[in-house]
Amino acid sequence: MSDLQTRLKKFIKKDSNASLVAGGISGALSRTVVSPFERAKILLQLQGPGSNQAYRGMFPTIAKMYADEGWRGLFRGNTLNCLRIFPYSAVQYAVFEKVKAVILARKPGQDLLFWERLLAGLVGGIASVVTTYPLDLVRARITIKTASLSKLNKGKTVRPPGVVETLKEVYRTEGGFTALYRGMVPTTLGVAPYVAINFALYEVIRDRMNSSTSDYSNPLWKLSAGAFSSCVGGILIYPLDLLRKRYQVANMAGGELGFQYRSVTHALTSIFREEGFLGAYKGLSANLYKIVPSMAISWVCYDTLKDAIRKW
């Protein structure tokens, strides 16, 4: 093995770098698997109140996507999503592990408390949003624009707007650099507590399984733990996830989508008042179909890759 290879191996095996690599790969892989559910969720979230709605339910929405845009429509925006998810997931896991290490260094020989894991997840969630938010905004814009173009052209294949093109349009027409971060506050309010709940709950369940006298070596147990923790976090935080998508498209086409909110509080009260309790959970089933298998796969891939890097 050459000196360069030795140094590269040593660099990757460092715990923080291993978390970056394992987190990025597991995030991109898991999101690709559930890409149709992700796009369906966004389309459902971006429908306002009223009975004349094009998308009704998760599986009918996926069927309509396929009918309007073909199989490519099911994965529209996935390349961009992976470009966003790789650093997003990598930063999330790496910061989570780093904060845990800092906390443990202050209390040697002791275990992490649940609230300390929550804190580590919260910081990891905030860091990942700040790092990748413009790409998340662009993906939401491309999803809704592509669906609108398909509707206008009666299902004919249309060229979807590009990433650079969308970034330039937002920058030029909506207020410059700060427009690329419009909606970041509600996004952070939704993502950070979700990551905190998901990460902390999964680790507690995993550690209990590892210390149990029963046999939990089957990967299905970790899949189940990841699915359960992401489901709990997803349901508790969902109205804020819906809100962040509304903020991201509020200024599209001069605000014709009808989402004009003065603040997070005004937005939430408006949604509950005008669309009812279920309106705040519009697209929840599509979201759960996405995040539950996605995080289950992501956790198993992450743990497996981290173990493989350690043994490398």
UniProtKB/TrEMBL annotation:
A single GO CC term for this protein reads: mitochondrial inner membrane
Where is this protein found?
Mitochondrion inner membrane
Q: Where are the Solcar repeats?
A: 14-102, 115-208, 217-308
Pfam families registered for this protein in UniProt: Mito_carr (PF00153)
Cited PROSITE patterns: SOLCAR
For whether the record's keyword set contains NADP, the answer is: no
Q: TM spans, by residue?
A: 179-201
Q: How does it sit in the membrane?
A: Multi-pass membrane protein
Which keywords appear in this protein's UniProt record, sorted alphabetically?
Membrane, Mitochondrion, Mitochondrion inner membrane, Repeat, Transmembrane, Transmembrane helix, Transport
Write down the InterPro entries for this protein, in alphabetical order: MCP, MCP_dom_sf, MCP_transmembrane
One function term, GO molecular function aspect: 3'-phosphoadenosine 5'-phosphosulfate transmembrane transporter activity
Recorded hits in Gene3D superfamilies, A to Z, give: Mitochondrial carrier domain
Query: PANTHER family this protein is in?
Result: SOLUTE CARRIER FAMILY 25
Q: Which family does it belong to?
A: Belongs to the mitochondrial carrier (TC 2.A.29) family.
Protein role: Mitochondrial transporter that mediates uptake of thiamine pyrophosphate (ThPP) into mitochondria.
Name used for this protein in its record: Mitochondrial thiamine pyrophosphate carrier 1
